[in-house]
Automatic annotation (TrEMBL), chain B:
Signal peptide, first to last residue: none
PANTHER family, A to Z: BIS(5'-NUCLEOSYL)-TETRAPHOSPHATASE PRPE [ASYMMETRICAL] (PTHR42850:SF7), METALLOPHOSPHOESTERASE (PTHR42850)
Gene Ontology terms: cellular component: cytoplasm
NCBIfam families in UniProt: bacter_Pnkp (TIGR04075)
Domain Calcineurin-like phosphoesterase: 181-376
Official protein name in the record: Metallophosphoesterase
SUPFAM superfamilies assigned: DNA ligase/mRNA capping enzyme, catalytic domain (SSF56091), Metallo-dependent phosphatases (SSF56300), P-loop containing nucleoside triphosphate hydrolases (SSF52540)
Domain spans labelled Polynucleotide kinase-phosphatase ligase: 464-814
Pfam families from the UniProt entry: AAA_33, Metallophos, PNKP_ligase
GO molecular function, one term: phosphatase activity
Gene3D superfamilies: 3.60.21.10, DNA ligase/mRNA capping enzyme, P-loop containing nucleotide triphosphate hydrolases
InterPro entries in the record: Ap4A_hydrolase, Calcineurin-like_PHP, Metallo-depent_PP-like, MPP_PrpE-like, P-loop_NTPase, PNKP_bac, PNKP_ligase_dom
Length: 441, 819
């Protein structure tokens, strides 16, 4: 950090670090060295160099990293800001006993951060009065970033303290509730007015939603506006497609008079939570291939505190639809909600056998995206699928071709239902096939 | 007196309190075989005499009895059992497990019972209890057979009790002592001429009577024919077939199980009312021309046929309609019905035939099951089972399987003897040939391997692998193998490196391996190549496909072209190769960009700036010399790191630039090669032609004098080469590591970070624990070889998949990923 305020060496007083001495401080993130490459009346540059122990990062107590090959010792992120906050704490608070006025005066500053994830740098620093220059480091997210502006030293340090981890997009430590206080304190005087305050808050708090809401509420108090207005980025549209999908599935289950229901690929239990509120579903069996998803489902369903009568209705089990699982036999209906598109096409015959031959319920509901509709999603780039794990997305004709094949091979009848706003040409965003066993009706 | 009981049965002791049941049980059975109601009352209530605990006690007792019987263990119930409803529950337990219930009644006189109870302080209940027991017992005695007990032994006196001896008898179906070799013959259905022809084809010598009728066939080489039933009906000469088979069975040249057609014929011959159809009319008509003596003999023969046989030490089961494993060697109406008719649902199909469930798809037993009954166009293996009914009577053929050779022999029908009510040959059923069941892979598993015995897979390891396997892996039909992990050599004590070949050579020398092969480690991605004459797959070490779609097909085509010489040399239709696919970035480009290149960019961006700032500061007299030295060193480490990973990346366009270095031939049809020297492997694989393939540089080293090996490694790694793998030259060698890797000093920067070579870092990194990794490497190696052997033998898919899945499951074990 360089200033041309005159006398430039006053920087040493503001930072409480003598320009002619190199000093080292042990901080929680490594050894921080402060030295001055230049200290003249005209120009003074202070350097902060953090030496990180790369082995301790992985092996040390409370280590959160698993790789020795790691950019943390080099890139400006939360490790650096922890050191910054510790070494320059007094300056960051704007206190200076010898130069109280200068501490409150904007001075010309040039800050160079030689390895910083730069994608949002211009967007976030410019509104704070910085001119941002970036030299990119090849095909990587890092750049050599120079900020030039006339800013109070304490504000400059606070900007860095908050925005470096925001640009980096991650924290090396567990983000706890006191992180909100740190943010509000360091953001005092500038964050509430920043046009990207939601983005900054969200990323600073490592995307922990309850913390984000709490921080936004408290920022809103400062601003005297309702938190909901700030929270647009997080709120869901009024009736989401997911909501409509669940409603359509439950409606179809009721029409089929299903009582004992399989949710195949239940994931975190979004559908299970709806099914359990409908007493007519007397047995609900959710399976997923991911043990982690099942834990999440159990947690969200609050299985451990469910009354016995309700608890008895629901079973969660790990299973995979590419293996024949006889435990799934004997149910009235099976739901595969947004599941088939996560299975490789070459494995679909195995899934077909598991569901339509082994489990063989009277009714099978299969929902999947209608790829024809994708063009109507403004935010979805052309040709891209809706989810990175989708192995395919079918047109209505492709879906029907698969479904007809299954129905004829397995002795089911099939009809189709569109879910979501229907487009005259492209159909509905989600398509559902309703398979029924046998020839009656 | 001898008390004969089947060698698998449920023994129900019946007798009043004080009749001496417990003493009797103790004398004749193992303590673990005897389930006493007193004991179970104690188990659930802490008081053996607490009658209020009886309901709970019997719940547990029945549960334990069921588990024991399921496991095929003789079980004795020591309770009064004087009431019919109590016995009914036990009979139910026996039936459910398909074992025979046997009653042993201790009809000890009342006064003896009373006297015994009087001597026991815990039995202070009155005489009326014993008298009530005795009365109930007397009422029960004559109904025990009717209740379902297959044998009832009554011991009337104390001396009966004292002098009795338990004699175990084999079940009729138990022919485990018959070890073959066998010729198992499918449904004959009265086709005598074809049967004679088949027997001759099998090497039997026909014996004819004065009227030139075949009355026996003498087998070659101690063989024995085994008929799967349905000898009779539909065909032109049921009496002729019976005469021949009865002769063979009578002379010990053949065995036959009962088919549903024999079942019905017996009832018809006995004058029961049966619907005469499905060819029964033919048999009855033909038998009418025979003598009454022959008819009686035929009836007796058919009636004496057993529904299934367990042969050859339990390795072979023959039943007319097949038999699931839980029924092998068991006896009950249910087992018999399955053996005769199969797993019918009670429904019929469009031709009026009973709908049968495909039990063979789910069959997981180790015994081979041979059967007939269901018409198939060709006899083929499904999970170690085979149906031999190829419809000779409908104009198809008569088929036999030689056991244990597994050779099929068949003769064509001389004509269509019986017009079918349904299409023949039957339409090839829509069968999923190798359906994998969830229970094939989940839960705690013990997999027997030829290399190191049982390998245990814990349930949570299976659970983690299930997700990876079903979400990302290729079709299990192509996933015949996953490569095992490989441990590094022991950590070097030298101060400048973490790994050095000295340790590898010392380790093998200590294990008695005199010659090792050093193979250059190609820095790419591990690839397994399954090449079939048509189709195949190229997949990663977690079973993912390398290249999707057309690119993958093209690569496979190129490999297939290159591998042509091997197909002929090994006369196989498929090959499985272990290889390294290069460059590294062909598959790992995301990882390289996100992690390796990112670190390089950040380090090379930051450190020179820091060095120049420190130099400037030093220039104006600030004392930063130590920090400057350290930082300069880090800057040059960062450069070295960047060079280290960049040398493994090169541009590829489509498949241009992609190279494959195969280093081990894993398996081919009927063959595995893990017992061949690594030199054989490298030499054989050097025949793969084309620019796609890269040779693996190698050196054979004598572990007693390994200097040349050390020098070779130094040369390989001086320029940043990844290093080498050291393996026992002779390949599979007892319980030593199948290979250890010795990685280069520069290469390890991309594993342990740019600065790992700094002395203070090396010193700490040297404390690494290899034990778990080495254990995993051995177990995964054993599972891998087991998978290959099973695949080469053509075993059912589930047997192969079990091992492959096991490797992936073990890989879920948390082990230091840098090893």
């Amino acid at each position: 950090m360089t200033t041309t305020h005159q006398p430039a060496t006053d920087l040493g007083h503001l930072l409480h670090k003598h320009p002619d001495r190199a000093q080292s401080f042990t901080t929680s993130s490594g050894v921080a060295h402060v030295f001055y490459p230049k200290a003249t009346n005209e120009e003074c540059t202070v350097a902060l160099l953090l030496e990180v122990d790369p082995i301790a990062l992985v092996r040390g107590p409370g280590s959160t990293l698993t790789q020795y090959v790691n950019d943390r010792p080099y890139a400006a992120g939360s490790l650096l800001t922890v050191a910054l906050g510790s070494v320059f704490r007094t300056a960051m608070n704007g206190r200076s006993e010898s130069y109280p006025e200068l501490a409150q005066t904007p001075i010309p500053l040039v800050i160079r951060i030689p390895a910083l994830p730069h994608k949002l740098a211009e967007r976030l620093f410019t509104p704070l009065g910085w001119e941002v220059r970036i030299n990119e480091h090849g095909d990587s997210r890092y750049g050599d970033v120079t900020l030039t502006g006339t800013v109070k030293l304490s504000d400059a340090l606070k900007h860095l303290y908050v925005l470096l981890p925001v640009l980096d997009g991650g924290k090396h430590y567990w983000v706890a509730a006191d992180e909100v206080d740190k943010l509000l304190k360091a953001g005092d005087g500038w964050l509430a007015a920043h046009p990207d305050k939601e983005l900054i808050t969200t990323r600073y708090l490592a995307r922990k939603r309850p913390l984000v809401l709490s921080a936004l509420e408290r920022l809103a108090e400062v601003d005297e506006v309702e938190p909901e207005e700030l929270d647009n980025a997080l709120a869901e549209p009024k009736i989401s497609l997911a909501r409509q999908r669940k409603e359509a599935v439950i409606k179809a289950l009721k029409e089929a008079r299903a009582k004992r229901v399989l949710d195949l690929g239940c994931g975190g239990g979004a559908l299970l939570r709806e099914l359990i509120t409908e007493p007519e579903f007397t047995e609900i069996h959710g399976v997923d291939v991911s043990a982690k998803a099942l834990q999440e489902a159990a947690r969200k369903l609050r299985l451990d505190r469910m009354p016995d009568r309700t608890r008895e209705r629901i079973t969660l089990r790990q299973s995979a639809l590419t293996y024949a699982d006889t435990e799934l036999a004997g149910y009235d209906a099976a739901v595969l909600m947004e599941v088939v598109e996560h299975v490789d096409p070459s494995r679909l015959p195995a899934l077909e056998h598991s569901v339509f031959a082994v489990a063989r319920p009277a009714t099978v509901l299969v929902t999947t995206p209608n790829v024809e509709y994708n063009a109507l999603f403004e935010t979805l780039p052309a040709g891209q699928m809706r989810h990175s794990d989708h192995r395919f997305e079918w047109t209505r004709a492709e879906f029907a071709q698969w479904a007809e094949g299954v129905a004829s091979r397995r002795g089911y009848r099939v009809k189709y239902v569109g879910i979501g706003p229907e487009d005259a040409e492209r159909g509905a965003p989600t398509q559902m096939a309703v398979f029924s066993l046998g020839d009656e009706n | 007196m001898d008390l004969k009981i089947p060698d698998l049965c449920l023994v129900v002791l019946i007798g009043a309190s004080g009749s001496g049941k417990s003493t009797f049980a103790r004398k004749h059975f193992l303590p673990t075989q005897v389930l006493s109601s007193d004991y179970f009352r104690g188990l659930v209530s802490d008081d053996e005499n607490d009658q209020s605990a009886s309901a709970a006690a019997f719940d547990v007792l029945h549960y334990v009895a069921a588990k024991r019987l399921e496991a095929g263990k003789v079980t004795v119930i020591d309770a009064t059992n004087v009431q019919a409803p109590d016995r009914a529950k036990l009979i139910e337990v026996a039936k459910k497990a398909n074992v025979l219930p046997v009653a042993i009644v201790l009809d000890t006189p009342t006064d003896v019972c009373l006297k015994r109870n009087a001597s026991r302080p815990d039995r202070d209940f009155g005489a009326h209890v014993v008298k009530r027991h005795r009365a109930a017992l007397q009422r029960s005695l004559k109904f025990l057979g009717k209740e379902g007990f297959k044998r009832v032994h009554v011991l009337h006196s104390e001396s009966d009790v004292d002098n009795s001896v338990i004699v175990y008898e084999r079940l009729f179906n138990d022919l485990r002592h018959e070890t073959g070799p066998f010729d198992v013959i499918g449904d004959v259905h009265g086709c005598r001429a074809e049967l004679e022809e088949l027997l001759v084809e099998l090497g039997y010598t026909l014996v004819r009577d004065a009227e030139d009728r075949s009355v026996d066939a003498i087998p070659p080489d101690n063989r024995k024919a085994v008929f799967v039933g349905d000898l009779v009906d539909r065909g032109p000469d049921t009496p002729g077939v019976l005469r021949l088979v009865m002769g063979m069975v009578g002379n010990g040249h053949a065995l036959s199980v009962r088919g549903n057609h024999e079942e019905k014929l017996v009832r018809a011959l006995r004058g029961h009312k049966v619907t005469v159809r499905h060819g029964l009319e033919k048999s009855l008509e033909q038998l009418a021309h025979e003598t009454p003596e022959f008819r009686r003999a035929a009836e007796k023969f058919c009636d004496g046929l057993v529904a299934h046989y367990v042969l050859d030490d339990g390795n072979l089961v023959v039943a007319h309609a097949g038999l699931p494993e839980r029924y092998h060697g068991r006896a009950s109406a249910k087992v018999r019905s399955f053996a005769l008719y199969g797993d019918t649902t009670g429904e019929t199909d469009e031709y009026g035939l009973p709908v049968r469930l495909p039990w063979a798809n789910d069959y997981r037993g180790s015994a081979m099951v041979l059967y007939g009954h269901v018409l198939v166009p060709e006899a083929e293996w499904i999970n170690n089972t085979m149906c031999l009914e190829t419809g000779v009577v409908f104009g198809g053929k008569l088929t036999a399987l030689r056991y244990p050779e597994k050779d099929l022999v068949s003769v064509k029908a001389h004509q269509t003897w019986y017009e079918n009510e349904w299409p023949f040959p039957p339409p090839v059923a829509e069968r999923a040939p190798d359906v994998l069941a969830l229970t094939d892979v989940t839960g705690l598993r013990r997999i027997e391997t030829s290399v190191m015995g049982a390998v245990t897979i814990r349930a949570e390891q299976s659970a983690s692998a299930l997700e990876v396997m079903s979400r990302f892996a290729i079709d299990p039909h192509d996933l015949l193998y996953l490569p095992p992990t490989m441990a590094p050599c022991a950590t070097s004590p030298r101060d400048d490196v973490l790994e050095h070949p000295d340790q590898a050579f010392t380790e093998y020398a200590a294990a008695g391996v005199s010659q090792v092969i050093c193979e250059e480690k190609h820095m790419g991605s591990r690839a397994v190549l399954l090449v079939r004459r048509e189709g195949g797959a190229i997949y990663t070490r977690t079973g993912r496909t390398f290249f999707d779609g057309a690119l993958g097909e093209e690569l496979l085509d190129r490999v297939r072209d290159g591998a042509k010489p091997l197909f002929d040399e090994l006369s196989t239709d498929w090959l499985l190769l272990d290889a390294e696919l290069m460059p590294w970035n062909a598959k790992a480009s995301g990882l390289i960009r996100e992690q390796y290149a990112a670190v390089g960019a950040a380090a090379v961006g930051a450190l020179p700036v820091a060095v120049s700032a420190l130099e400037t500061a030093a220039g104006r007299g600030v004392d930063v010399s130590e920090l400057l030295a350290r930082t300069s060193q880090r800057a040059s480490n960062a450069e070295a790191y960047r060079k280290a990973y960049e040398r493994y990346c090169w541009p590829t366009e489509g498949l241009d630039g992609v190279r494959i270095a195969p280093f081990q031939l894993l398996a081919a049809e009927g063959q595995t090669f893990h017992d061949r020297s690594h030199l054989w492997h490298l030499e054989t694989l050097s025949k793969l032609a084309g620019p796609l393939f890269q040779q693996t540089r190698h050196l054979v080293v004598d572990t007693a004098d390994p200097a040349a090996g050390v020098k070779w490694w130094e040369e390989l790694t001086a320029e940043g080469g990844e290093g080498m793998v050291v393996k026992p030259l002779q390949n599979l060698t007892g319980r030593v590591q199948p290979g250890v890797k010795v990685r280069g000093r520069e290469y390890l920067r991309i594993i342990y970070g740019p600065d790992y070579t700094e002395p203070q870092n090396l010193q700490r990194l040297r404390k690494r624990s290899l034990g778990r990794k080495r254990g995993l490497a051995l177990r995964e190696y054993a599972l891998g070889i087991e998978a290959l052997e099973r695949a080469a033998r053509g075993e059912p898919l589930w047997r192969v998949h079990e091992c492959v899945f096991g490797v992936l499951a073990l890989e879920s074990e948390p082990v230091d990923p840098r090893l």
